[in-house]
Amino acid sequence: MDREQENQYIYDEVTKFADKVLDGIDPQKVQVSFQLEKLRPRMMELAMELSTTSEDIFIRYMDTASTVSLNVEKKFQSTMGNMNSYGDPMWTEQF
Fold first, then answer.
1. What is the rounded CA–CA span in Å between residue 48 and residue 14?
2. What is the structure's pLDDT at 95?
3. In the 8-state DSSP scheme, what is residue 84?
4. In this structure, how many other beta carbons lie within 10 angstroms of the beta carbon of residue 95?
5. Which of 45, 65, 16 is nearest to 53 (CA)?
6. Which of 4, 21, 28, 74 is the most exposed place for a label (fewest CB within 10 A)?
7. Residue ranges per domain, the chain?
8. For residues 23, 29, 55 and 52, what is the CA-based torsion angle, rounded to 10 degrees?
9. 29-52 pLDDT, tens per residue?
10. How many whole angstroms separate alpha carbon 56 and alpha carbon 79?
């Protein structure tokens, strides 16, 4: 498994674990430190499995999550396009 595949594996595994242990928790209302504590066991398992540190797992997870988020936003923008070019009525009222 190359580095990119490992990063995707880390992201998938932590996300899957988060879906279980953080189910019903509003991430906007719960402190990040609490959320990280809940994810720590899986990150430590991954660190042992991949012979690295839990800090490295966290950094790689966050980097991959940022990339995934950016790709989702790009896909959304390409799907929606520039609303102004489609005659968004709110746009013309601004001037």
1. 14
2. 47
3. G
4. 4
5. 45
6. 28
7. 3-81
8. 10
9. 999 999 999 999 999 999 999 999
10. 34
